[in-house]
Amino acid sequence: MDSVLLFSKGDLSSGLEATFRHMIKLLQDRNPDALLSTPEADTIAELIDKGSVRCPVLHRDEWWMDEPAETTFQHSEFGRQVQRRVPRLTVIVPFDGEHEVFMIRARTYGFNPPRIAAVNKADLRLTWEAPATDAAAIRAHFEQEIDKIEEYLSWSRAQIDEHNQRVVNEVPGLVARRRQELLNVRNIQADIGIPVRRRGDAATYSVPVTRRTLQVARQPARPKAGLFKPEPALSEPQYEDALEVLRNARNGLERSPTTTAKLSEEEIRNILLIALNSVFQGNAAGEVFNGAGKTDILVRIEDRNVFIGECKIWKGPKTIEEALEQLFGYLVWRDTKAALLLFIRHANVTAIIDKAVAKIEEHPNFKRRGRHGTEDRHDFVMHAVGDPNREIHLALLPFALRPTTAPPPTSP
Questions:
Q1: What pLDDT, in 10s, does the model give residues 362-379?
Q2: CA–CA separation, 60 vs 153, rounded Å?
Q3: Per residue in 79-130, pLDDT tens?
Q4: d(CA 184, CA 178)
Q5: Which residues are CB-contacts of 400 (< 8 A; sequence separation ≥ 6)?
Q6: 116-130, 171-185, 213-227: which has the minimum mean pLDDT?
Q7: SS3 label, residue 123
Q8: Where are the domains of the chain?
């Protein structure tokens, strides 16, 4: 039976460098409109995935044996060639990772690499082709072969880990520079003052979804790119100012449990509006029509919505589902800053916050966690309904409003 000599072809360093260069080419070749329209964090995460290599991990605790077979081998006996039939025992060892790594030599290597029956995309196959008279010896043979493979893998893994860390360190800067290059060209176009028209034969941007492997990288599927048009960004300081006002008002309410225990959701909201209007000079309002409903809190400056908030009293995990459904109904395409103000009237505030965070992360529009993740505030990056490239920044502000008239329920 043919066999495969592992860790003996080519050079792992060259393969990793080729993978890194291919990742950079993917970035350079990306449709400019698609690159500028896609959130920078999404592009970074995608390229890190494309440029990283998954070193195989053997699952030897899941190994199994195939049905026994027989094979014929020839040997010399008293000067003449004799054929004998002997058992063939095959052990299959599953693994996760990229199977190409098994074939490539790392910079650390031995002069007697392992030889096995076959390498498939998800498992290795090792065989015993000799008289089967000692089960312990046969098992020891397979154990030693796997130990040897894992030793060689450890040398490859050290080198691959260095490569993957390089990818993580360098990709954010590469993406930022490429986006800035493209934006500089767009700015020059705008300064020239001649209208830009897309050619009728311009190619659209649509490619299939496939998983990358070592030395091979492919672009993922994404929406077709239209001509990128920069728009004025909402003021991040204004959004943060609104959240800071709400945090201060929240702290004041929490310090007055006797008063807040008697307040309804609407009454609490009105107190928050008073605080917001003291800073935003009357630009904060409640029960304002926006999108598909009336928002609890809306701060609008110069015809742009700086902040949209939804107030909810915690009544179980469904509270979060209902709040997010309402928020995504209120948000129109240009709204990218929102907050969920969660009023908690239970004793176990920490457990409820954990449940609320988990429900938000389960939402189909969830993309990743945001910058803040403390007991005061949890940030999330969501995407607009039907538009994965349109990011919405959502802040969860918990209000620990202890009840004074009745004991809290035993379970949140």
A1: 999 899 888 887 878 999
A2: 14
A3: 777 777 888 899 999 999 999 999 999 999 999 999 999 999 999 999 998 8
A4: 10
A5: 254, 344, 349
A6: 213-227
A7: strand
A8: 4-173, 237-400
Summarize the confidence of residues 282-297 as an average pLDDT: 49
State the Cα torsion 402-405-406-409 to the nearest 10°: -20
User: Above 60 in pLDDT, residue 302?
Assistant: no
| Residue 175 tokens, joined | 């993406």
Segments in 331-379 forming alpha helices (H): 349-362
Closest CA to 288 of 280, 276, 300: 300
Closest CA to 299 of 289, 291, 309: 309
88's enclosing H/E stretch is: strand 80-96
In 227-377, DSSP assigns E strands to 284-285, 288-290, 293-295, 297-301, 304-313, 337-344, 366-373
Which alpha helices (DSSP H) does 57-134 contain, by range?
none
Q: pLDDT tens digits, residue range 6-18? A: 999 889 999 999 9
Which token pair is 33? 């409109």
